[in-house]
Amino acid sequence: MSMKTTKVDKALREELGTKEFTSMLTLCEQCGVCSGICPLSKLTDFRVRKMILKAGLGDNSLIESPDLWLCTMCYACLERCRSGIQVPEIISVLRTLATEEGKLPDSSSKVARLFLKTGYAFPLSGLTAKMRKELGLGELKVDKKAVNDVEKLTKKTGLKKLVEGS
Ligand code: SF4
Ligand code: SF4
After folding, report:
1. Is 2 among the domain residues?
2. DSSP 32
3. Cys-Cys link to 137, which of 81, 84, 132, 153 (CB 3.0-4.6 A)?
4. What is the model's pTM?
5. Are residues 96 and 115 in the same domain?
6. Mutate to test the pocket of ligand 1, among 3, 29, 89, 91 (most ligand atoms within 8 A of CB)
7. pLDDT tens-digit profile of 46-102?
8. Mutate to test the pocket of ligand 1, among 3, 16, 28 (most ligand atoms within 8 A of CB)
9. Is residue 92 located within the same domain as residue 111?
């Protein structure tokens, strides 16, 4: 197999290394089972197998990829991987690196801001209310205490600073 590695980034490799992923990445057999089970494979050009290969090489182009933000964290790849590669965790590290470099996509930034403001990662719109009513679910309200808790948590984890820059 031939692969063009555009940029091998030491920092990325070190970041994955600090998370104890380095040895795990070397266990990847490139079998492609993860790509086969990943729902994104049916809809996009994103292939988990290729991403793991690039992560192992420390290829920094990964954090530029919009595909990085498509993963739904369904964990299907991890359940099927016989080498136990923690793909969703690796994607989380890559997303953090991308965010730290100011590459958080607008769509994800909007969701994060909404979460900071209301404690919900989706808008409390009329459509949400209508669908909940149809399903027999109660009305959702912004809970001030929950928002305060979210603020404390997101300050501690650094999410607030990453998203709002303050
Ligand atoms: S991450 Fe696991 S399932 Fe995917 S290619 Fe590597 S060894 Fe195979
Ligand atoms: S966790 Fe992400 S990469 Fe893994 S199968 Fe689900 S969508 Fe695909």
Report:
1. no
2. -
3. 132
4. 0.77
5. no
6. 29
7. 899 999 988 888 788 888 888 889 999 999 999 999 998 889 988 988 888 888 888
8. 28
9. no
